Amino acid sequence: MTSKTLATTIGLSRANHVGITVSDLDASIRFYEALTGTKIANVDSIGGPRMAAVQGLDKVLIRYANVHLENLNLDLLQYDEPKPGRAQYDNGDIGAMHLCFEVDDLQAVYDRMTAAGVSFSGEPITFQDADGLRSGQGTKVAYFADPDGTHLEIIEPQGPFARTIL
Length: 166
Hints:
With 166 residues, this protein is α/β, with parallel strands linked by helices. It folds into 2 domains: 17-81, 2,3-Dihydroxybiphenyl 1,2-Dioxygenase, domain 1 (Roll), CATH 3.10.180.10; 99-161, Signal recognition particle alu RNA binding heterodimer, srp9/1, CATH 3.30.720.110. It contains 3 helices and 8 strands. The chain has helices spanning 25-36, 49-55, 106-115; strands at residues 17-21, 42-47, 61-68, 73-81, 99-102, 125-126, 140-145, 151-156. It has a 4-stranded mixed sheet. Strand 7 (140-145) and strand 8 form a beta hairpin. The chain is globular. The chain starts with 16 loop residues before the first strand and ends in a 10-residue tail after the last strand. The relative contact order is 0.17. This is Glyoxalase. InterPro entries: Glyas_Bleomycin-R_OHBP_Dase, Glyas_Fos-R_dOase_dom, MMCE/EMCE_epimerase, VOC_core.
């Protein structure tokens, strides 16, 4: 099922959470607690015909954990029913998404993460004119993945990439 391109303004302007489907909830809890420095707020399970219907599935049983960040919640979801397959995608694939964490000092965070055993997709870069940007030069980024291969990023934003946190 797909949505048509909207011709009417809906007005969704706040995000509540990002859901990340994981293979091992306990291992993902350990990873995201260490990554964010935030303890899990809640661990629970949900399922049944109503939850299945709202997701367009035949049956659903999900164990999940909630991580509350300053400006967004992360829901870590381990589907016990239906049995999950493994998504495979590159950052450039249609429909691929990633979660980006904002940091004040990218190099310091990168160094701490590397020392903790996180493998990055490549060395961090700082956006320059040569990258084809009209603005945002000075922004620093680096990409990595969680234990299940979910694409993640850290960013030290400048210019239009910087935002005011409400």
